[in-house]
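Can anyone check this?
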Amino acid sequence: MALSMEEQIADARPETGIRSRQVRRFFRRPGNIVGLALIVVIAVVGVGAHWIAPYGANATNFSDALAHPSMAHLLGTDSLGRDVLSRIIYGTDSSILASLGAVLMALIAGSVIGLVAGYAKGTVLDEVLMRIIDAVLVLPPLVLAMALAFIFGQGLLNAIIAIAVVFSPQFARVVRSKVLTVRELPFIEAARGAGAGHARIMLRHILPSVIQPALVLATLSIGNAIILEASLAYLGLGLQPPNPSWGFMVSSDVNYLSQAPWLIFAPSVAIALSVFAVTVVGQGLQEL
C-alpha cells in the first residue's frame, strides 16, 4: 500500500526534540536549578510589581532623600526620596521585557534570513543576504546599538529595535549553517519528490529541524541584551525618566556614589543576577 506524502517524509525525518533523559540531566545540575529559580522570581517580580513594591515607582518624599537602608526603605532612597527597592521592582518590567522583546525580534528576523539564505545556497540572494550580515557583524555591538538608537530616537521601543538589529545576524548565521546540512537530508528529498513547494519545505520541514540551536542562542543572548539595554539606558537612549530602568538608575545616581553607594549597588546587582540566571540556563540548554 502506497504511503502518503506526510508518511514518507515522517519516515525519512531524523528524530528531533529533547529526550526525557536530557531533561533529567538538565535538572540534575544545581546551577541550572538555581538559574531557573532566579528566572521564575524575576518573572514574578516583573508581573506583580504593582502588588509587590512597597511604594510607587515615582513616589517622592524629599524629607527622606538619600536615606540609608532601613526597615522603612530596605535599599534606601535616592536623591528625590524615592524608594530604591520599589524602583528596582518596577524597573524589572522594562529592563527584562525590553531585553526579551529585542531577542524575540532578533530570533524571528534572523531565523527568516538564515532560512532563506541557507535554502537559496549559492544564489545571488544568498550572497547578498550574507554580505549584509557580515557587514553588521563587523561593527562592535554597543557602537552599532548606540548609532541605531541615536538615529531612531530616544525611547524604549527604539532601543528594543536597535538591540534586535544588533543580534539578528547571529541568529541568521546559526540558522543558515543548520539549513545547509538539513536541506540535503533524505526527508527533504522525500518532500521535494512528493511535490512540496519551496515555502512548504522551508516552513514545515526545514525550520522545525533547525530552530532548536536558535532557541538556545536566544536564551544565551538574553543576558547580553540585558547588558546592552542597561548600557543604552545609562547613556540616555533607552527608557526615559521618570520611568525606572536599571541602567538609567545607575547613570542618574552615579554622582552620589561616595555618599549613597546603595544607589549604584542595588540596580547593578539586579542586572548581574538577571544575566547570571539566563546565562546559566542557556549554557545548560546548549549542553543537551
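Reply from J.R.: I decoded it. Residues 27-51+81-286 form a domain with the MetI-like fold fold (CATH 1.10.3720.10).
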